[in-house]
Amino acid sequence: MTANITRKLRPATQLVHAGTLRSGFGETSEALFLTQGFVYPSAEAAEARFKGEEPGFIYSRYANPTTDMFEKRMCALEGAEDARATASGMAAVAAAIICQVKAGDHVLAARAMFGSCRYIIETLLPRYGVDFTLIDGSKIENWQNAIRPNTKVLFLESPTNPTLEVIDIAAVAQVANSVGAKLIVDNVFATPLFQKPLELGAHIVVYSTTKHIDGQGRCLGGVILSDKQWVDENLHEYFRHTGPGLSPFNSWVMLKGLETLTVRVRQQTQTAAKIADFLADHPAISKVIYPGRADHPQADIIAKQMSGGSTLIAFEVKGAKKATFNVENTLEIIQISNNLGDSKSLITHPTTTTHKNLTDEARAELGISDGLLRLSVGLEDADDLIEDLDIALKAAV
Ligand SMILES: *Cc1c(COP(=O)(O)O)cnc(C)c1O
């Protein structure tokens, strides 16, 4: 049933082959096992499988062969021992935190994070007696000062949404280890190609696979990766009994997405770098934040922990909200959407969309101004995108 490749593979090859389970029909492409349950050849076999004495699938809330292929392929890419795929990125973040905390524990997180992650930590966890602290994660002293003996989980996103700030993962992992806590890294913006949090010392990595891993704007999905012991002791039972797993169909879409991840993300990053340079020189723009440019405020940390730039660019248009809306409304190729990592280029105004629920003060702390736009660069020709932006920026000011 398994593919018989035994050599150690490079990432692009893993993305095409790792984890493949081939059925008796010898299909080339990964099979879609659209089934809830599995039948057993005998009552004895059913008993043995439930006892864990015999390998095999039991029920798709627990595990499914198509989802299993996706999880194994992600493990190979990430260098993780085990993984569980979830119905969305938020299901991954929620499960990764909730499966390991109890009343009386403390969670420490960088405040610059995806809005729904903030809801879990600030609103949901305190209802169950889990305390939290949010800090400016870019300064390592802030982590050192806020850590407590009862801190169980540290959580960060790097680069952050939407301002593409970078946090020193290895340094934060050391702070976590000082009290035996676990560091969870939301690695969506870096993609598994350009940043390996587990190698940097993080204990758990989460993705919204909705983004670059699907990469073509179709299905929601997520994945949690860690060592086998952590998955066995924390996630395994939580997952079976609360049912946040990814559907076989969406797992299959994600598997096919992984096959082209390298070519898509490399191309999108190359285009993004070219657009970032164009924007940096544009008179209608006051600031460009791009993790591939030498003028990024944390270029030194980027050089240390990332092997590539980003498919995302943050930039500020002079003239605040009015001019910024004009830019968005004049664009023809680049579409207005809060999604990212798609093959279609997408732009969003965080102040009035993804980050509208934050107070003015909280937005100011995060550097989210009225002129800020976040651009997710797709697979279109770079020169068409630059022309689209140039026309819109000229019209705006
Ligand atoms: C999109 C996103 C999420 C949430 O993922 P969904 O698949 O939309 O649930 C979490 N973190 C980051 C950084 C994201 O970009």
Automatic annotation (TrEMBL):
N6-(pyridoxal phosphate)lysine modification, residue list: K211
SUPFAM superfamilies referenced in this protein's UniProt entry, alphabetically: PLP-dependent transferases (SSF53383)
GO cellular component, as recorded: cytoplasm
Top-rank taxon, per record: Bacteria
MF-aspect GO terms: carbon-sulfur lyase activity; pyridoxal phosphate binding; transferase activity, transferring alkyl or aryl (other than methyl) groups
Keyword Transferase appears in the UniProt entry: yes
Residue spans crossing the bilayer: none
Cofactor(s) listed in the protein's UniProt record: pyridoxal 5'-phosphate
Pathway annotation: Amino-acid biosynthesis; L-methionine biosynthesis via de novo pathway; L-homocysteine from O-succinyl-L-homoserine: step 1/1
Reaction(s) the record says it catalyses: O-succinyl-L-homoserine + hydrogen sulfide = L-homocysteine + succinate
Gene Ontology biological-process annotations: 'de novo' L-methionine biosynthetic process; homocysteine biosynthetic process; transsulfuration
NCBIfam families for this protein: O_suc_HS_sulf, PRK07504.1
Assembly and interaction partners: Homotetramer.
HAMAP family (alphabetical): MetZ
The protein's name in its UniProt record: O-succinylhomoserine sulfhydrylase
Organism: Phyllobacterium bourgognense
Gene, per the UniProt record: metZ
